[in-house]
Amino acid sequence: MKFNPSRRNILIGGGTAAIAAASGASWVLLADEHQALLDYFKRSLPGVRIDEASAAECIHEFLGRWSWKQRRAATVAWQTFGVETMGTMSDKFELAARRALTMYLTNSNFFEVADPRAKTIVYVSRPSGTACTNPFANLDPP
Amino acid sequence: MPVIAPEMIEDHYDLVIGGTGFGSMFFLHGYRRRFPRARVLLVEWGGFHDRSWQIENQRNSDTDAAQTFVQDPDEKPWFFTLGFGGGTNCWWANTPRLSPNDFRLRTMYGVGEDWPISYEDLEPYYVAAEQIMLVAGPNDLGCRYPRSAPYPQPAHNLSSVDRIMKSAMPDHHFAVPTARLRTPVGDRGPCCDSVQCNLCPLDAKFTALNTFGEHMDAPTVHVLPNARVLSVELEGGVAKGLRYSTGGREQVVTGDLVAIGCNAIHSPFILMRSGLFHPALGKYLHEKHVLQFEVLLDGVDHFDGGIPTAGLNTLMVDGEHRREGGAALVYFINHYFRDGLRAEWGRWRQTLPMEVFVEDLPLEANKVFDEGGEMPAVSHPRRSSYCDKGVEHVIAKLPQLLAPLPVERIIRRQDLPTGFHIQGTCRMGKDRAQSIVDGGLVHHDVRNLLVLGTSVWPSCGTANPSLTAAALSLRAAALIGG
């Protein structure tokens, strides 16, 4: 969702927030933080073929570390104003979006291929306890 | 397996130690070098969890340290590991030394307290601790922290950003000395920047478990886990042993020499419960304040260093500014987990996360105290104005420090609530009216009782404390009975 602070969107956002406040968990059905992040990935990676199934897995893992309260706040904010605009308004939202994108990029073949626009970028889940996770590290011997 | 069941405890030991973290284990090491046949008991509140257990469970301990003290939830939090090896399990293994003037803060700058020992007194023990941990470090760091021997392992690789800084500030910018291996030794692999140091997949960093096997395997050393030290047994001004509880029962073990190394929250509480009251006991709880910055760069890629914290800068570690405000050590972070990569095509890595340790002055009002309950109470309502001025100095000086880099913007990120370093509360000193232990970590009034670990620090300087805690314990062991 491209940010467009139109009256319509603000009304939609306000409505979402009101529903959230009124009906607890049922609002989750109305707002989709997964889609917001996936759209953000696509806008951040223009011309890149994203393997959506594995990207969805990445987003699922990323958001799985959040509390329900955090997800609720992010969903309403992202749906209402967009991921990028929330990032300009709040450090927390900016860093959250960047961390999600970073998780996707550094656990996929994005930095391994010569031209990331020439190949489909596939995220590969990494189990906890995996060694040598920084793809940029210089580990040359002394 | 060194663990002993409570019913197998011997009647008497040569040395009884409460706690098994840095202070305790390095004292044990030094003591057994001198007295290899001595019988020793280590009493540990937490469990004995070997590396396999920790990796399998993805945690260092199954004891919730937060439940072992009480405090106002709105105040500064404190974290530590209860379990065999204590902080050696969870630490991230950065091992800078304190600077020479950290030991003489009052003499040099008219603030805080001097330590009862000098940098020169401790230097040989710094070397010894670095040898035991197999620290990888840059020998040119000796221009700031004089050293009598080279580091046991070569330094890890700097990042591109660090190399620019090193070129511009050769006497202030260095590779971080660290107890993460550069080259493998035995079962310890080399650090490969996994950024999970508390549960290192390669066992690259020093831990009590991977280094002190000679003591754990010795038939004369016993470890009693899941036993909480309650007090020191005293008789006629002499320590006779430790009272502890395990399995719901209180018991006493006796020893000729008694040491408490139960961190800066629990050690003072144990002394209080032993009747060793002193006006300074429990007071002056402190640690450095940790600032976080992100520096956006124009055209220079980062994150290509060899370890998660690849560079440190000493520009603000010492100098006349310490008359007014705290010193500061700047770490150049080499991982992107905190702030993420930049979300701009092709500029992903043009960002530098930094952490700055700002010295705080211990305040009497920040303390551990006994409010009559089962657990110690902790109150740390504020840091010193000296620290706040140190923060202002950092913010004013940062553009100069970063001048060698193509800086787009410096962003102050959220301050960390804690640096995970708990210090003070059993401070050392020459004056028994002002301090709990002397420079050899021996209690001023009970001369066969030692206090080990970072609780004895009268000031914090800017360095991570574990190496200094280890060196102090090696020195204490060398001096004991001497």
UniProtKB/TrEMBL annotation, chain A:
PROSITE patterns: TAT. InterPro entries: TAT_signal (IPR006311). This is Tat pathway signal protein. It comes from Sinorhizobium kostiense. The lineage of its organism: Bacteria, Pseudomonadati, Pseudomonadota, Alphaproteobacteria, Hyphomicrobiales.
TrEMBL record, chain B:
It comes from the Bacteria. Coiled coil: none annotated. It holds the Pfam family GMC_oxred_C. Its cofactor is FAD. Residues 410-472 form the Glucose-methanol-choline oxidoreductase C-terminal domain. Keywords: FAD, Flavoprotein, Oxidoreductase. Belongs to the GMC oxidoreductase family. This is Choline dehydrogenase-like flavoprotein.
